[in-house]
Amino acid sequence: MVKEELNFAKSDDFNLTMLPGKFAKAMRTCKIWQLFRFMVINVKMLIVVSKSH
């Protein structure tokens, strides 16, 4: 199996469905990381909105 295909698995709905790796699962379930990303996205939105007004 090719290294790029390791995160793909067969399912009933799709032939190739990408499965998240260990690191991606950890980042999606880490509340501290989610809070940090939320703040970064909000700051970016504030910058965009402030430029238009």
What is the count of DSSP helices, taking H or I runs of 4+ residues?
A: 2
Q: What proportion strand? A: 5-15%
* Alpha-beta content class: mainly alpha
- The protein's oligomeric status is single chain
What is the N-to-C order of secondary-structure elements (H for helix, E for strand)? Answer: EEHH
Would you mind describing this structure in some detail?
The protein is mostly helical. Helices cover 57% and strands 8% of the residues. It contains two helices and two strands; from the N terminus they run E-E-H-H. The chain has a two-stranded antiparallel sheet with strand order 1-2. The mean pLDDT is 82.
Search tags:
mainly alpha, 57% helix, elongated, 53 residues, 2 helices, two-stranded antiparallel ribbon
Give the secondary structure arrangement, pairings included:
Elements: E1 8-9, E2 17-18, H1 22-29, H2 31-52
Antiparallel strand pairs: 1-2
